């Protein structure tokens, strides 16, 4: 019987050297797909923590870790609906979120992509860094919510102390929206989280938000001007936009396009801070 990842993956404190990590990646690769949900969860969390504490100097190792994360997800995608459990450290304790992923037609929103767990982990660890510890009533919008991990993390952070705040989890495809609603209900976030269809080509209402967040939404160059336009339409004066996107050589075109699009945008009527979180 093959040894499982929980038995051989090294501690990440201190960070292992490149030889140790390369060997660990090879051992994971050799036993994929993993059949034990607990091992999938353990390995996913290990890879996510590794990526969240990496820098561009670790580009090759980061690519290998990101590839394994995708394979871990893809390994269960073909078997129909499945649920993944995410546990994030929080100043007041542990924050747990249950996410259902499903085979749906749009091919994007049915799975949780690599940037979302990283952004969710950062938010859970330091809500104040994202303005989520405010006692004032907040209106928050997530663009391209997908399975809803980031938005539900925010909802759970708001529930204990700021239940008057609201977050809108938005996406476009109906099947994605149905799955989002199911995840909101499963996690008991109905009181603060609302699911809303949002077409980036058009403003769906006049409502504006204090905070807008997005992860894994810059996967096509044609979408970037639409994202910038949506932020411009929906962000309040003085608001903040937090964007999590991967930085790799293969993403250089997207990175440049995002920077150029925001530089060219007219935010003169807003004191907007655009926080680009990269991994």
Automatic annotation (TrEMBL):
Keywords: Methyltransferase, S-adenosyl-L-methionine, Transferase. One of its GO terms (biological process) is methylation. InterPro entries: Methyltransf_16 (IPR019410), SAM-dependent_MTases_sf (IPR029063). GO terms for molecular function: S-adenosylmethionine-dependent methyltransferase activity. It holds the Pfam family Methyltransf_16. GO terms for cellular component: cytoplasm; nucleus. SUPFAM superfamilies: S-adenosyl-L-methionine-dependent methyltransferases. CDD domains: AdoMet_MTases (cd02440). It comes from the Eukaryota. Belongs to the methyltransferase superfamily. METTL23 family. This is Methyltransferase domain-containing protein. It comes from Mixia osmundae (strain CBS 9802 / IAM 14324 / JCM 22182 / KY 12970). The lineage of its organism: Eukaryota, Fungi, Dikarya, Basidiomycota, Pucciniomycotina. The gene is Mo02924.
